[in-house]
Design the sequence.
């Protein structure tokens, strides 16, 4: 199977001139569609709309298209990675009712014509949302204080939390006494984080303290599962995300955190492949959480819909708040039908771990809000070990602090720790 076409992202560093840097960032966001950064990989995902059975198209793959087929059930003793099926033209995800197809335009048209119960959609390129400039005068641990994490008696002990991102810096001294299970789903790259975003998100969700004793992590005793689904340049193929979700579920993770996404436009629906993956996770006792996206420019009255996969009904979409509990200027909004912000969390000037030698860094984004929610869910899973995943989600909603802000921006409000 040929490698997907991926784009390279640029990232803003901290900048004391916040307004100028932010204006530059937002201009880049709105020009991205017209740039060389791709939105799709060139491959396709075929989704069964009525179940998981792929017998009918599988016969079509073989008899009419002469496809070489790989199947997820062939990878029982190893994790699903594209390097394992380079000769295949199609990979069938048995658990999800989805197939990844590497076919030409004529073959795709034939599949569409002869497979009435299936939809075929382009495979998306997925990106780490851009890092945003920060204000340097906000206390480093404000997010843990406002969500009452620092007052909680729970630490996430024995709860498995998966963070699907750019990997993890296994040599990070803040995690020297922690066991981290790491796996890469990016072809030809190890699980080592060479970007920084993944290590930052893991720090917020599951970290503890820095060298000075400042605590920045929510579920400080949770079992960490680091799935590398985005490359060292911060981009990835949609199928890599599906591989990571499947891996997390098979490892009995209770929470799956994804600070990543693809831009969605007004009127565009959610991605059925992601929705099936999130439902698969729910059916196996795992909650999927994703960043709403950083594409809005609220100070200029410009609002962008919730990103994919956060816009899926079975995924908890997380919006970002600043230290004054206002909606972050960049945080996306519930605009499209069935694509709602579910809850909000601290996402401006968030201090956490970063790849060495930087060690720790403060950045902003819905990416930073998402692992707050993942960590709090981990605390709830510890508090209610016999609770169903639906009961845990309902408790998260019930405990949220209501805010005098529109639900289309913050959902039920600010997440609060048990």
Sequence:
């Amino acid at each position: 199977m040929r490698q997907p076409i991926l784009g390279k992202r640029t990232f803003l560093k901290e900048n004391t001139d916040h307004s100028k840097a932010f204006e530059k960032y937002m201009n880049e966001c709105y020009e991205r569609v017209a740039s060389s950064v791709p939105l799709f990989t060139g491959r396709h995902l075929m989704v069964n709309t009525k179940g998981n059975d792929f017998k009918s198209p599988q016969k079509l793959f073989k008899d009419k298209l002469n496809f070489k087929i790989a199947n997820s059930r062939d990878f029982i003793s190893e994790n699903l990675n594209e390097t394992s099926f380079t000769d295949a033209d199609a990979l069938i995800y048995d658990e999800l009712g989805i197939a990844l197809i590497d076919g030409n335009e004529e073959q795709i048209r034939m599949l569409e014509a002869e497979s009435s119960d299936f939809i075929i959609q382009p495979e998306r390129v997925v990106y780490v949302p851009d890092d945003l400039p920060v204000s340097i005068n906000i206390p480093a641990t404000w997010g843990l204080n406002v969500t009452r994490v620092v007052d909680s008696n729970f630490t996430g002990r024995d709860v498995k939390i998966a963070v699907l991102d750019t990997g993890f810096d296994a040599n990070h001294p803040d995690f020297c006494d922690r066991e981290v299970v790491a796996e890469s789903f990016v072809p030809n790259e190890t699980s080592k984080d060479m970007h920084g975003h993944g290590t930052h998100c893991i720090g917020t969700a599951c970290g503890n303290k820095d060298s000075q004793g400042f605590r920045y992590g929510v579920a400080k005793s949770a079992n960490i599962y680091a799935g590398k689904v985005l490359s060292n340049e911060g981009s990835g193929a949609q199928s890599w995300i599906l591989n990571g979700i499947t891996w997390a579920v098979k490892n009995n993770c209770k929470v799956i955190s994804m600070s990543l996404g693809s831009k969605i436009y007004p009127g565009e629906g959610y991605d059925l492949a992601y929705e099936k993956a999130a439902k698969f996770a729910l059916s196996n006792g795992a909650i999927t959480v994703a960043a709403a996206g950083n594409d809005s420019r609220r100070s200029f009255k410009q609002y962008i819909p919730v990103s994919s996969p956060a816009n899926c009904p079975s995924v908890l979409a997380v919006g970002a708040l600043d230290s004054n509990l206002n909606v972050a200027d960049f945080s996306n909004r519930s605009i499209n039908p069935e694509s709602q912000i579910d809850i909000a969390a601290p996402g401006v000037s968030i201090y956490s771990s970063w790849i060495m030698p930087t060690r720790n860094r403060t950045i902003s984004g819905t990416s930073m809000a998402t692992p707050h929610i993942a960590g709090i869910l981990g605390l709830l899973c510890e508090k209610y070990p016999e609770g169903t995943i639906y009961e845990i989600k309902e408790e998260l909603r019930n405990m949220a602090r209501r805010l005098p802000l529109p639900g289309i921006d913050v959902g039920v409000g600010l997440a609060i720790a048990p």
